[in-house]
Design goal:
By secondary structure, this protein is α/β, with parallel strands linked by helices. 31% of the residues lie in helices and 24% in strands. It has 8 helices and 12 strands.
Length: 250
């Protein structure tokens, strides 16, 4: 890959804590930058990081700082060593952020190399549908958000989410919706209606917002009511909290 590189925040091995692949071990490759700023975001991404934290041994938290941008060769060499040294441990490579599709041009060159080792799982805010269309053939799994105004602070993203989901539905996709006590019934109706308009069998994960105190920010009865509302239009609605917060993983 020579001198090709990417600006990354961190690379590490851990258990997936959210969504449909919860509990599976993944290689996480966290890209720098995001195009929105959600009020509940728990990802600490410093502005223009000079270094990327790269775990030397999978899961051992023995991080070393590598200057940004990280050479493709260095990233691939690390993953190659993990796959050879710990065969069968990792389910897939999680391409996450921030919003990784902001680095779409880089991903178009990097993903074919990464797919030689493990399936590719994209974690995304579900907005950059044009970039997704350019990458969809390289992806295996997609976890996309539908951002509710009540929890994210972002408004009028509905059409962009629908456009994104229509492309993502070509692959194994699920939708994650973060909910809180501030979430209103109409938001769940609108979000579930978007998913149903594409395919009512696409799994939807209702994820209770996790407060900075570590507690769940929604009453148990309220989230059951949201599940009931979504289930009017959808066949597969689950409630899954951020499990990695409970087991102390990243």
């Amino acid at each position: 890959m020579n001198d090709k590189s990417a600006k990354l925040v961190e690379v590490f091995s851990s258990v997936q804590g959210e969504g449909l692949l919860v509990g599976l071990r993944q290689v996480f490759v966290r890209f720098y930058g995001c195009n929105i700023s959600c009020t509940y975001c728990d990802t600490n991404i410093e502005e223009n990081p000079l270094f990327c934290r790269m775990e030397r041994t999978p899961g051992r938290r023995d991080f070393a700082e590598t200057p940004n941008p990280v050479l493709f060769d260095d990233l691939i060499s690390l993953i190659d060593g993990w796959v050879r040294g710990w065969p069968g441990v990792h389910h897939s490579i999680s391409i996450t952020g921030g919003e990784p599709l902001l680095s779409g041009e880089i991903l178009r060159e990097l993903l074919p190399e990464l797919k030689k080792y493990l399936p590719i799982y994209l974690e995304t805010n579900g907005l950059l549908h044009e970039e997704l269309a350019r990458l969809i053939h390289m992806l295996d799994h997609i976890g996309m958000d539908i951002k509710l105004p009540s929890t994210s602070g972002c408004i009028d993203l509905w059409q962009r989410h629908e456009d994104f989901l229509r492309i993502a539905a070509q692959k194994d996709v699920f939708v994650k919706i973060v909910v809180s006590d501030d979430t209103e019934d109409w938001e769940i109706e609108r979000a579930s209606g978007i998913v149903a308009s594409v395919n009512n069998q696409i799994p939807v994960i209702l994820q209770p917002v996790t407060l900075k105190t570590g507690r769940i920010g929604i009453a148990p009865l309220r989230i059951l009511e949201f599940q009931e509302i979504a289930s009017r239009a959808l066949t597969n609605v689950r409630v899954i909290a951020q499990t990695h917060k409970f087991i102390g993983q990243m």
